[in-house]
Design brief:
mainly beta, seven-stranded mixed sheet, 0% helix, elongated
Length: 119
């Protein structure tokens, strides 16, 4: 069974840091684009960072300069380093990836991990 499993969320104070991880497991031949999304209460899910297969990245303006997305293809893992966290960063964070599996190319979501930033 192909799945994405996130870890690293939690409660942190204003100005603190967290590092999220998302590991892909199952029979996967290769991984294309990977991304992090977040969804705050009452809001739509939004993409905040993307990383292509060969490492190019893009960020939402709201996190640019504070968050860093990276990936380790040997570990099939994408990371999100979050620094200078603010209360408005509070949300459920989801990883997303385009995976080539036995079923062909598909888009997959993690289960989500809660990040709460206290003021």
């Amino acid at each position: 069974q192909v799945q994405l499993v996130e870890s690293g969320g939690g409660l942190v104070q204003f100005g603190g840091s967290l590092r999220l991880s998302c590991a892909a497991s199952g029979t996967i031949f290769s991984i294309a684009d990977m991304a992090w999304y977040r969804q705050a209460p009452g809001e739509q899910r939004e993409v905040i960072a993307t990383i292509r297969a060969f490492g190019s990245t893009n960020y939402a303006d709201s996190v640019k300069g504070r968050f860093t997305i990276s990936r380790d293809n040997t570990k099939r893992t994408v990371y999100l380093q979050m620094n200078s966290l603010k209360p408005e960063d509070t949300a459920v964070y989801y990883c997303n990836a385009d995976l080539f599996t036995m079923s062909g190319r598909g888009n997959y979501w993690g289960q989500g991990t809660q990040v709460t930033v206290s003021s």
